[in-house]
Structures are given as structure tokens and as C-alpha cells.
Amino acid sequence: MAVKVTWALYASVVDKDGDRFMTPEDFVQKYLGLHTRIHHNPKTVQLIAAVADTTKDGTFCAEFYSCLVFSL
């Protein structure tokens, strides 16, 4: 249950089917807490997210998040 609650906190995009997704900014800045200062480099955020984006579609789905949480 806790995974679903935290997922809802960080995933800011909802598609037409009601599925939630994290943007690169959601994942890197909100979830990981990296590069949160006002004058952060947006390209750095994108690069960090790209390393973790297994599907290379620019978003993070609930399945990715669940696998990440359970692997830690």
C-alpha cells in the first residue's frame, strides 16, 4: 500500500486512461531529491533521468517505480 501512496505523490502526469507517470523532473528532483536548487542545470536532470529510463520514452511508469522500490 505504501508504494501506491508514494507513487501518487511523485507522479504528476495523468494520461487519458487515468494512468499516472513521472516526468524526468518528478523522478530526479522530487523522488531522488537531486538538483532541487533554483539555478539547477535542466540538462543534468535530463541526463540523470535518461540513465534510469529503461524504455527511453521520457516517462517513468508505476511498474518501473515498483521494481525500483522493491530492488532497494
UniProtKB/TrEMBL annotation:
Q: Which UniProt keywords apply?
A: Calcium, Metal-binding
User: By its UniProt entry, which InterPro entries does this protein fall under?
Assistant: EF-hand-dom_pair, EF_Hand_1_Ca_BS
- A Gene Ontology molecular-function term? metal ion binding
Q: Which domain of life is it from?
A: Eukaryota
- Whether Calcium counts among this entry's keywords is yes
Name of the protein: EF-hand domain-containing protein
Q: Which organism is it from?
A: Xiphophorus couchianus (Monterrey platyfish)
